[in-house]
Amino acid sequence: MLLSIAFAINAFAFERIISLAPSVTRAIYQLDLQSKLIAVTMYCPDFAKGKENIGSILAPNIERIAALKPDLVIITKEGNNVSTLNKLRSIGLNVYVTGNVDSFNDICGDFINLGNFLGCPDKAHKIVGDARSKMAALAIKNKNNKSLKIFYQVGAQPIFTAGNKSFVNDIIAHAGAVNIFSDINSRFPQVSREEVIRRDPDAIVLVALGNAGIAEKKTWESFKALRAVKGGNVYLTGDTSFTDPSPQSIAEAANKLAAILSGVAHEK
Amino acid sequence: MRNKYTILITLLAILAITALFSLSCGGSKIVFADLIRVLFSTSTTDTLSTIIWKIRMPRIVLGIFAGMGLATVGCVFQGLLRNPLADPYTLGISGGAAFGATLCTVSGVAAMTLFSLPVCAFIGSLASFYAVYFIASRKNFSISSLILTGVIFGFIFSSAVLLILALAAPDKIQPSIIWLSGDLSAPDVRLIAIVSAIIILGIIVLFIFSKELNILVLGEEKAATLGMNTERTKKIIFITASLITGACVCATGIIGFVGLVIPHLMRKITGPDHRILLPASALAGGIFLPLCDTLARSIIAPVELPVGVITGLAGGIFFLFFLLRPGESRIF
Amino acid sequence: MLELRLVSSGYSSKPVISDISFKVESGSFWGIIGPNGAGKTTLFRTISRIINPLSGDILFEGVNVSDIPRLDLAKTVTTMLQSYDLPFSYTVEEFVMMGRFPHQKRFEKPTKNDLEIVENNLEFTDIAHLKQRRLHELSGGERQRAVLAQALAQKPKLLLLDEPTAYLDIGHQIAMLDLIKKLNKTEGLTVVMILHDLNFASEYCENLLLLNNGKIHTMGTPGEVLSYKNIEQVYKTVAIVKENPISRKPYVFAVPNEYRNKKQGELAP
């Protein structure tokens, strides 16, 4: 288990931070610390393009990282490699590892920890509080809605979906729907098309990752017997808020999903 | 040596049984009675019907034809190249296909249209085929030049694939790897139809040349003194076999071991005469691949393992038993 | 039957053999001899069209060989190569049947004629009792006979043999050569044979062609070709030629180094 290093008292703020994951980069910008950010990965969002590039997420350039003399490197538990962590530590760099992304609560807690660590606890609390209230409001709004069964797909060939150990499950629940695969105890299990057909969801939400795109949407639409297809409820979204494990994005995604599904609910 | 017709008819029967069995296997077992009802009914709107007709049937059909194609090409290359380690990918076709497919996936084009992935894979396989053909033709299609060129281009292209993967966005890597491990879930029935047609035609052409294949085993010089136009024969065989492989690979990705192991197994049953070895290998391949795929998608349902994993394990273990049997274990 | 006119041949633009001209009459028995690298195998490969000549003509029964379709040529000329990949898991019968390839149509099963020819040749080479065995189960001598049987099954008029007795013990060598001689005498099969052993060549061949450095050195009967002068010139070794007391044909004696200090004249008969 990778532990997050939390200093009890933040004696000094960090001036040279390197982020090794897009979600971390986004978090840093949200916390308004981008001036301290000196380098990011090549897949980090466009607004960070001006920063130094230290390579890919799975195999970042350790030499370059070291040459930039950061005082803090932030990596994620689920996106980066353990070997990267070990290498960075072995050359004596200060590394912070973010925690679980298994649920909305976990992510909020983690964000606050990060905020504390970086010396801006108030900002972090505000952001998280904001997200939490958005989610709460959504839950209340959807309290009396009939629960729709949806299939949430995050990749094609093979088909990946979200199990109950994923923050996506929270997105779906707060949007007033039921994840047809919430019985699977893992984060992003691979499932067969056959199984999806058997569970016959009311709506299919395709997130454009991997090979899930227009082709996959067309493929689903060819299965005319499916309830979701009959109702015209196969949705494709390239919205990054659906794939970003940060408190704000999750709240946004939940709202967007609720909006999409409200169309479906009315047809019922 | 058993009568060759007996062997072929037995294989055909096993093929039919395997197909029916595979249709009834999957995430949920489908009772035989239900299966028959669905197969013969005309309604296509219920869940069971959808699963059988739109998911399992195309998959099994593709598995049968791809299995036939790969086994036949493996058999032919082992004879042509006089090498027991030859398989459909020895002459570099898979490298180009992998390159085309990976490029397509990583660039995001694969997500856009249904045909883009197979088309890219096929174009890739044509590229590597042409490269090998061009260089081999300058050496009169000598066997050694074919093998060397094929192996070299195989290496070049797989390095290129690794290069692309190293630079790929993380979410594009998984689908690339799945394609490279073999995947029978091609969604479009039209693709399956086109590919199957190419495979069957190719197999027929190769079968027509089975006597020549027998003679070629004697070596190119001896074959020439027996009156064979060896260069023309080798060219035709190479082109046809490459087309079959390209067709298989573009629809299913790279499924290994079928082309390597099945011909060896069948050679022990039918003997080395290609006039029976070839059709027997084809049928056996058509049995083996769908069976492996059935296993791949049933063993830890609803998760589906890549079929290449099962063909490798099953093929390898099965063949070990055969090899360890007492008696002469000569390959040729 | 076979005529070569100023033939040059090789594997690249530089010829290995050049200016080769000789005639092989129908029913004759020729031996091709010469040191290693003289071009014997190249000559063979050129005659059997495995490689094409760089210049010159090869005529088979008056027709230029390049005008004869390969398959037709295979019905009349058989080349028994020195070594080629034997498909060890075929049975002897299947293997010999391959010799019928040029005479068979594509999808035809072996005809009664084919089966008869194969059977006859198996008997002729005395391996009929082995016909169901696989090639890898045979001894070297038996395998060589199977290779001969396959060559004969092609029913050629002209038989080209490259070292048919290589790897055989003396008993098998004589047996093989006797068989070939029998074919030549009783069926009028024209034979052209590459041999390393000068004495076998002398014994069995009517005519000899001595090749050296890609050119014809001498041509004629064994008595004309196998003189000690020719042998010393071509093989760069000392030899003495006497008469074989049984067959009266020339017999070549090698002279090892320890006996060479004596002058030639002192070893005269």
Descriptive terms for the model:
heterotrimer; A: 268 residues; alpha/beta; Rossmann fold; five-stranded parallel beta sheet; four-stranded parallel beta sheet; 10 helices; 11 strands; 14% strand; globular; disordered N terminus; C: 269 residues; six-stranded mixed beta sheet; four-stranded antiparallel beta sheet; 24% strand; disordered C terminus
Strand runs of chain B, count: 0
Query: Which two protein chains have the largest interface (Cβ within 8 Å of the partner's Cβ), and how many residues from each?
Result: A-B, 37 and 41 residues
Q: Which CATH-level-2 architecture of chain B?
A: Orthogonal Bundle
What is the first-to-last residue Cα distance of chain C? 40 Å
Order of helices and strands of chain C: EEEHEEHEHHHEHEHEEHHEE
Q: What would you call the structural class of chain C?
A: alpha/beta
CATH topology of chain C: Rossmann fold
Helix content of chain C: 25-40%
Give a written overview of the molecule:
The complex is a heterotrimer of chains A (268), B (332) and C (269). Chain A is an alpha/beta fold. In chain A, 40% of the residues lie in helices and 14% in strands. Chain A folds into 2 domains: 17-128, Rossmann fold (3-Layer(aba) Sandwich), CATH 3.40.50; 144-267, Rossmann fold. In chain A, helix 3 links the parallel strand 4 (72-75) and strand 5. Chain A is globular and about 60 Å long. Chain B is an all-alpha fold and 332 residues long. Chain B has a single domain (4-323), classed as ABC transporter involved in vitamin B12 uptake, BtuC (Orthogonal Bundle). In chain B, 75% of the residues lie in helices and 0% in strands. Chain B has 14 helices and no strands. Chain B has helices at residues 4-24, 32-40, 47-80, 93-106, 116-137, 143-167, 170-181, 189-208, 210-216, 220-225, 230-252, 258-270, 274-298, 307-323. The relative contact order of chain B is 0.17. By secondary structure, chain C is α/β, with parallel strands linked by helices. Chain C contains 9 helices and 12 strands. Chain C has helices at residues 40-47, 70-76, 92-97, 112-124, 140-153, 170-187, 198-204, 222-225, 228-235, and strands spanning 2-9, 17-24, 29-33, 55-60, 63-64, 77-80, 158-162, 190-194, 207-212, 215-220, 239-243, 250-254. In chain C, strand 7 (158-162), helix 6 (170-187) and strand 8 (190-194) form a beta-alpha-beta unit. In chain C, helix 4 packs antiparallel against helix 5 (140-153). Chains in contact: A-B, B-C. At the A-B interface, strand 9, helix 7 and helix 8 of A face helix 3 and helix 7 of B.
